[in-house]
Amino acid sequence: MKTIFHDSHFLDFHTHTMRQADRADVMEIVSLHLGQDKAHKYFTVGMHPWWTEQAATPEQRTELERLLADSHCLAMGEMGLDNLKGPAIEVQMDILRSQLKISDEMKKPVIIHCVRAFGQLSEIKKEFPGIEKWCVHGYGRHATLAKQLIDQGFYLSLMPGLPPAKYIDLFESLPIDHLFLETDSMPGISIIDVYETLAGLIEIEMTELQRQINSNARTFFGI
Asked: Distance between CA 166 and CA 143 in Å, rounded?
């Protein structure tokens, strides 16, 4: 089966803007908030907790289903929980559930935004055992929590620009087959810089790091 994730590519697992579309060796997965119209090739779509006030309406559900059926739509998200921004956490949990129901029905992986709400996220995950693949994007917390999340079945996409010691700790403590790299469209950071920095820190050949991350993507997305 032909895959879209090639071992020689620099995969940007989560970004909001295509910035290196001119490079054949860079693949960017663009995260769209429902209703946004941004340049993309491969994308994910969801209702971000910062900009969503209620559970998905029938109209929003129909639109999400239409987009998720697109062969270029790889997953649902980002969506999730944020204890620092957005509506009350109980409201956010209902919003998240309304989207997870769609993911479950359409057999799509999910990309999760989570800020200081990992306990609530873990409880909600138990409600949807039919969703096989979950990834928390922008992870920047400590390795102990990361190990707990991976043990619960989560993948983690690491926040760009982490302190060197944290990158080393995470990669030394965690199974590399459950990790991704991203830019999250942070200013001044390219995905190639992220790979080069990490390869130097953990003393891995660049080609091996690329091969591993793309292998992880083939498993996560089933493509």
From this structure: 8
Mean pLDDT, residues 136-144: 97
Look up tokens 């619960």; give the residue. Answer: 152
For residues 112 and 121, is the Cβ–Cβ distance under 8 A?
yes
Of residues 158, 160, 159, the one with CA closest to residue 189: 160
Alpha-carbon torsion angle 18, 22, 23, 26, nearest 10: 20
What's the mean pLDDT in 179-191? 97
Q: Is 82 exposed, middle or buried (0-12, 13-18, 19+ CB in 10 A)?
A: middle
**pLDDT of 37 over the 90 cut:** no
83 confidence band (pLDDT: 50, 70, 90): very high
Tell whether the model's pLDDT for residue 69 goes beyond 70. Answer: yes
The DSSP element (H or E) to which 103 belongs, if any, is helix 89-106
User: 1 pLDDT exceeds 60?
Assistant: no
DSSP states of 162-221: --HHHHHHHHHHS-GGGEEE--TT-TT--HHHHHHHHHHHHT--HHHHHHHHHHHHHHHH
The answer to whether 12 and 27 have CB atoms below 8 angstroms apart is yes
